[in-house]
Design a protein that fits this description.
- This is Transcriptional regulator.
- The protein is built from 6 helices and 10 strands.
- The chain has helices spanning 12-21, 92-95, 120-135, 149-157, 181-194, 197-208; strands at 8-9, 24-31, 34-41, 43-45, 53-59, 74-85, 102-112, 115-117, 159-165, 168-174.
- The protein has a 6-stranded antiparallel sheet with strand order 1-10-7-6-2-3, covered by helices on one side. It has a 4-stranded antiparallel sheet with strand order 4-5-9-8.
- The longest helix has 16 residues, at 120-135.
- The chain is elongated.
Amino acid sequence: MYIPRANEEKRVPVIHRLMAEHPLASLVTLGSSGLFATHLPVVIEQDGSEFGVLKGHISRANRQAKDLVADVDALAIFAGPQHYISATWYPGKLENGEEVPTWNYAVVHAYGPLRVVEDAVWMRAHLESLTDRHEAALPVPWKVSDAPEAFIRTMMNGIVGLEMPIRRLEGKWKMSQNRTERDRAGVLQGLASLGTPESRVIGQMVEAAPRGKG
């Protein structure tokens, strides 16, 4: 991924937080017919390594698990908050017109070898972990054990597990770091004027981003 120095995010806890908050990954692998992608929710777990390990599952009918070039790492893409940035928000628009729109966003790319897992114990633990994380905020969380055991076994027969130890982790936070203070102030004012949940999140991230220009 192309990452200008001003937009590079190296702090692993910050990157992991985005991955946890936006767990629907785009998993890209190379097979005999070329590139193949699946969109799936994943769990990032700490295993004592620098970057952790990703765990997920896909339908047994999905050919991605059957057609992998073993010596080429898989790529998991996590798309975080994003928002359009209007050229009208920059002071220079009124002064000389020499401004163009852009897009602010945060994304993570995780790379590593992909392993297909058929173990029932592994799968049960993964499904419980994935479910518990996303049910936690509900008034009455659903648990895997709420469903009949025979039904769960049948459902598990239709999926395969995927595990990817992360060998390389890239974070790109494009949040107006290369703009001047007055340009960032204009972006913040423009975002605030929209008053949407998305604009508020990006505004907070612009404010928190390290400054690249005076």
